[in-house]
């Protein structure tokens, strides 16, 4: 494929570069966007054996002095213990705000490393090198960084845009089916809120290639540019996430991946929205079919009352209510504000 460059015009603008084999150019690309010469590569135990050596060599060849930090893979590492570990690593190795962090990995690595970059010495440059489908089309774009608390997901974080996103589709060849499907949930979400045509192509078995990745990136780019700080339209990207995050929490981030939980959340909230006349009838079944076709679950066995209780701590809750993301129809997402009491009634059976 030819190199694709997608420019993101946020408060601190940056490019997303997509090309097969791009990982080996990390150093040369990084040198163009940062004056730093000391680089901290943050990654996890899954990604390090696959890509760390290549990225480290590329950075060193471009003149960077490189130190690496590896933490245990998985959502359970997305916490303050890991974050403090990164801070201590940076301090012990003499890093300062003129240096750069390279986030090499999936969504968890990007979120935690990005938050470290946003907060260590009040802000460092950082570059996203996403290696999963979910990270390439979603979490590496838009500047959201965070860690989880026992009380809920992503409750402590910052908006901190990267200097660059380096997206190499070849890294997706290393993913097992479950982790690949995890990313497909976010791709499906993008089509449901913004792109009916792309949804229909997914239903027809569209190949996940560079074009597909770029189409998804562009959906998120357009939303983020119009609403960088999530005060309005960007909330649409949370479709399925209010229940999804709650499902992850109920199962202690162990049974379902993020994408699996979001898939369940998208189907469930659409089913209830249909019953209340807020979504076109038949939409939930269409969503369920494409979700199952991509190896994702559409339901779980946790009591709905437990999921709703966990959802009350979601970060999208404010001023005595919560903003739900619903669909008028496929490709037409919208925001629906409910009070705390209305939230529970929304998920009750319609008489």
Structure overview:
With 351 residues, the chain is an alpha/beta fold. The chain has two domains: 4-174, Rossmann fold, CATH 3.40.50.1970; 190-346, Dehydroquinate synthase-like, alpha domain (Up-down Bundle). It has helices spanning 26-33, 48-61, 80-92, 107-119, 133-139, 177-194, 196-203, 210-226, 241-250, 258-275, 283-293, 304-311, 340-346; strands spanning 4-8, 14-18, 38-44, 65-71, 100-105, 125-130, 144-149, 152-159, 164-167, 317-318, 321-329, 332-339. The strands form three sheets. It has a seven-stranded mixed β-sheet with strand order 1-2-9-6-5-3-4, sandwiched between helices. Helix 1 (26-33) crosses helix 2 (48-61) and helix 3 packs across helix 4. It starts with a strand and ends in a 5-residue tail after the last helix. Its cofactor is NAD(+); Zn(2+); Co(2+). Residues 69-180 form the 3-dehydroquinate synthase N-terminal domain. Pathway: Metabolic intermediate biosynthesis; chorismate biosynthesis; chorismate from D-erythrose 4-phosphate and phosphoenolpyruvate: step 2/7.
């Amino acid at each position: 494929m030819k190199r694709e460059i997608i420019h993101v015009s946020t408060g601190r603008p940056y490019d997303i570069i997509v090309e097969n084999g791009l990982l080996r150019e990390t150093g040369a690309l990084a040198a163009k966007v940062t004056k730093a010469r000391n680089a901290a590569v943050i990654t996890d135990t899954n990604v390090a054996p696959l890509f760390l050596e290549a990225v480290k060599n590329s950075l060193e060849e471009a003149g960077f002095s490189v130190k690496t930090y590896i933490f245990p893979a998985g959502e359970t590492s997305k916490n303050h213990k890991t974050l403090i570990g990164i801070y201590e690593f940076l301090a012990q190795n003499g890093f300062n705000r003129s240096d750069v962090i390279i986030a090499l990995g999936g969504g968890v690595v990007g979120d935690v490393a990005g938050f470290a970059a946003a907060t260590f010495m009040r802000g460092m440059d950082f570059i996203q090198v996403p290696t999963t489908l979910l990270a390439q089309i979603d979490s590496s774009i838009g500047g959201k960084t965070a860690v989880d608390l026992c009380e809920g997901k992503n409750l402590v974080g910052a908006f901190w845009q990267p200097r660059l996103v380096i997206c190499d589709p070849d890294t997706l060849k290393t993913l097992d089916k479950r982790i690949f499907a995890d990313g497909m949930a976010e791709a499906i979400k993008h089509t449901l809120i913004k792109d009916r045509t792309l949804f229909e192509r997914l239903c027809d078995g569209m190949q996940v290639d560079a074009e597909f990745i770029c189409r998804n990136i562009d959906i998120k780019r357009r939303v983020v540019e119009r609403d960088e700080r999530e005060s309005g339209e960007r909330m649409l990207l949370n479709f399925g996430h209010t229940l999804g995050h709650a499902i992850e929490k109920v199962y202690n981030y162990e049974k379902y991946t993020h994408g699996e939980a979001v898939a369940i959340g998208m189907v469930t909230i659409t089913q209830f929205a249909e019953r209340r006349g807020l979504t076109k009838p038949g939409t939930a079944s269409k969503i369920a079919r494409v979700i199952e076709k991509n190896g994702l679950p559409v339901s779980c066995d946790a009591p709905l009352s437990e999921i709703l209780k966990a959802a009350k701590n979601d970060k999208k809750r404010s001023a005595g209510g919560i903003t739900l993301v619903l669909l008028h129809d496929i490709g037409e997402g919208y925001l629906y504000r409910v009070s705390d009491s209305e939230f529970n009634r929304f998920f009750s059976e319609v008489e």
